[in-house]
Amino acid sequence: MLILNTNKKQKTTLLQSLYLQLVPYKFPQSVVSAVKESDVTTLSDQQLIDEVHQLSGVEIPLAVTSVLEAEIRHTRVLEISEMKTISL
Description:
Helices cover 55% and strands 0% of the residues.
């Protein structure tokens, strides 16, 4: 959507449109679970994202695909009791 008019209401509409396009991908497990009314805990993040795309028809944002394709850099898992003693 291109805004040629500086009307504040139109800008708000644009922001709402962008926000609504991103919302389903922010919490894909909740979205798929609510729409399909089934257990989705066994699905991977990629499967959930693909399912949201199929259900909504909303294009998967580049920010989401880039995160899914990014290298995992942090793999260390700590117990709560270890958090104060560990040095980074």
